[in-house]
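**Backbone shape codes:**
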Amino acid sequence: MGLGLYDEEGLSLKGLEEVRRADLLFAELYTSFMPGLSVSRLEVLAGKRVRILSRRDLEEDAEPILLEPAKAMRVCLLVPGDPMTATTHVDLRLRAEAMGVATRVVHAASIETAAPAAAGLQSYKFGRSVTVPFIEGCSLPGSIYDYCRDNKALGLHTLILLDLRVEEGRFMSIPEALMILSRLEESRGEGVFPGDRLMVGMARLGGPDAVVKADRLEELMDFEFGGPPYTLIAPGRLHFVEAEALKVLAGAPEEVFRDRGRG
């Protein structure tokens, strides 16, 4: 069951109906961060207690906690965003079906559709998405550069997700991610992330204080986005409507479009 992006009000009417019908209600909140979510308000909406599950609960102990009870009762699992975007949830559903437990998905808003919409970019013009991980002494993630380079060569936009560890209270910031991309550019030198590349930074999509800002990479490093969660888009070749949308909806300066055709 998808919770959407920001708070418990992202739950659809169909989702709310299923939540109220459930005998057991669980939620995992570690795969993404919902800044406006209140578990107590969610419990009021649901009319029942919500048990919060850890990563270990889902990845190692799902059978006794979720799957066995689901043989005899209606069990509902709430997750941030859209339910099937995390591999963990797909695996859980397959395990349930293998045990003879029928499953059903109720969809909700996902960052993969919300981010293009918030920026005014055409969703079918996005290539492969990437995630910028915490480095912590490890080597720079070269595959990110490769995928973004390939998308750029095809004129495609790239959705860039930022690492987060909700259970530790750690969220990669936009400046931190841009610094990693800049270091990759220094190392590779293929012109994928130069300082003057147009980028779009986003924070807290789906909430009343959402921020969407388009500017040169070097300028976004100093922009104040407020609290998490964060997302980036590296635009590719822009349709004139997309360029206008970035100016109107994301405050992109006019001058960044003078070399628009190069992506």
